[in-house]
Amino acid sequence: MENKANAVSRIVEIITQSARQEQPVPLPELIFHSEIPKPTYHRLVQQLDDEQFLTADERGNVYPGAELKRIALNLNSNNERKAQLQAILHGLSRRVKETCGIAIPDGNEMVYHERIQTNWPLQIVLPIGMKTPVWATASGKLFLSSLTKTQRERIIGQLDMAKLAKNTHTAPDALEQELKIIRGRQVSVDNEEFIDGLVAVAIPVKSADGKFLASLFCHCPKTRKSLDQLLTYLPDLERTRDQLQGYIRELT
After folding, report:
1. In the chain, where are the structural domains located?
2. Mean pLDDT estimate for the chain
3. Which end of the chain is less packed: N or C, by CB atoms within 10 Å?
4. What topology does CATH give the domain 4-64?
């Protein structure tokens, strides 16, 4: 039986191996480059998957999970740092006068991890912790666009792509065409694709080495601001994104 110190060092090795990769890596490849016994490696990856530190898809590709990304963003580290993050988002929300927040990928979904809600009587409330579809949200499409074509095809091939609202993409080819545009512009929108009457804009938050960490988004009811009106606040989102990236890099 492995001792606790040995188990911890192996867990750290597996997480470090996975986090350093530019893209999801097949589990056999990770095992090949490790001295950890194959059965032990499989068991530890399963445990890390269960705890959401890693995510393993149906094809055996391994990539950082929601908990690992949460740590990278330092969202739950302590009250002072959480307050700093919220202060940055509050500044954006005050300028846009709409709900703004951060979403991170979790497998085939996006998770809302921080959000500043507006005080308008008319609101569409999407609570922290809510999981949303990658093919029908600005944040989700932004994440998909950050992947290689092969990675996107694997994920999209596993999606139901059900029609959730009047403009939801239900055809993979049409979604792929939009993802190419998003990848070039580094801006993603939701034009009533997730919820009828809701429009949203999202831009990427990246690590110091250029890896996608999260999306910074703003959304609102279409009756208050059209998508075109929301897009006029892109300079505000970009300034806030720069603040967030600077904040994250100070912590790492």
Report:
1. 4-64, 80-251
2. 85
3. N
4. Arc Repressor Mutant, subunit A (1.10.10)
Mind giving me the DSSP string for the chain? Answer: ---HHHHHHHHHHHHHHHHT-SS-EEHHHHHHT--S-HHHHHHHHHHHHHTTSEEE-TT-EEEE-HHHHHHHHTTTS-HHHHHHHHHHHHHHHHHHTSEEEEEEEETTEEEEEEEE----SS-----TT-EEETTSSHHHHHHHHHS-HHHHHHHHHH------STT----HHHHHHHHHHHHHHT-EEEESSSSTTEEEEEEEEE-TTS-EEEEEEEEEETTTS-HHHHHTTHHHHHHHHHHHHHHHHHH-
pLDDT for 1 equals 44
pLDDT in tens, 76-119: 456 667 778 889 999 999 999 999 999 998 878 898 888 888 87
For the chain, what percent of residues have pLDDT higher than 70? 84
Biggest CA–CA distance in the chain, Å, is 62
Rounded to 10 deg, the angle between the 234-251 and 79-96 helix axes is 170
The structural architecture, per CATH, of the domain 80-251 is 2-Layer Sandwich (3.30)
SS (H, E, C) 78-147: CHHHHHHHHHHHHHHHHHHCCEEEEEEEECCEEEEEEEECCCCCCCCCCCCCCEEECCCCHHHHHHHHHC
Other beta carbons within 10 Å of 85: 21
Instruction: Give the tens place of pLDDT for each residue, 19-38.
Output: 766 567 788 888 888 888 88
Average pLDDT (32-46) is 84
The predicted model gives 213-234 an average pLDDT of 96
